[in-house]
Amino acid sequence: MSADLRAFALGLPKAELHLHLEGTLEPEMMFELAERNRIELPYASLEDARAAYDFRDLQSFLDLYYAGCAVLIEEEDFYDLTWAYLVRAARENICHVEPFFDPQTHTDRGILFGTVITGILRALEDAEDRFGITYKLIMSFLRDRPSSSALQTLERARLYGHRVAAVGLDSAEVGHPPEDFAEVFETARDRGYRIVAHAGEEGPPRYIKGALDVLGAERIDHGVRCLEDPALVQRLARDRVPLTVCPLSNVRLHVVETMSEHPLRRLMDAGLVVTINSDDPAYFGGYLTDNYVEAAGALGLTRTDLAALAEASFGASFLDDDAKEARIAEVRQYAADDKT
Ligand code: ADE
Ligand code: ZN
What we know:
This protein is an alpha/beta fold.
């Protein structure tokens, strides 16, 4: 990988549309917060924690991801977690973010919904003031818990109105089809939330169809398994449904075995709207720029391809049309002025 391409990808104006805030918890912060909140960790050292991040599949990752969340207790913890991600985002020229948070992971441990969201929103507001990073916050429901718990979470969010822009669906996919959450998402749509859903990461293509038809998803998170169903690929291309693809995540969770086998390029060649994202960067060995660079290196993507992916990231966002256009113009200007 040339240092030049990394410099190009780093400076490229980008949006990140698939990022779990809880997945940005670096081992260093996990240890710091564990000490601050007097919580015992299952790891003896930072190295011990990193060594445990050797996943077989989505579930083996989720087990550690949820265990790590035990250190997040106070509003300040959620602020610090979010702020640390946003400082990195600013360094990577990520100028718009649509991060997920998983309220149930915290409310089920007795943490108040208000504690979680207030910490997160304060950091997002501060980053908008300080770095000009715009945001739309996405509240994600855990699909391996009952839909009644998701409905209760939707009720809790009412107090915060449109400070939550969208709702999503994540956690263990196989065996938890979108149809189980039809009522929750219908209510969310009625209340004016935008809709996204994880589908087709480990689950079959029919879960992607369910997310579109039953949940009303406007974007599909991951979606890489759509390639197994040519008619679905045609539909996604025709309707310009964006996929938020996470290359390093897919390799680390063995959705694909190596980056050179990653379907990103095939998805682009099929005419799909594709964006690159980092998913859970503290666990998967890289932030957004790393995902651009590693995918480019393994799949032979050019600067023109990377600029097109960055344009797509703004186009697929929930920004209004004027803001999208302005950001896309910045990407074009950056590519035209490129001296890296
Ligand atoms: N929660 C955090 N990361 C996730 C992923 N990659 N898939 C499903 N749920 C998640
Ligand atoms: Zn995800």
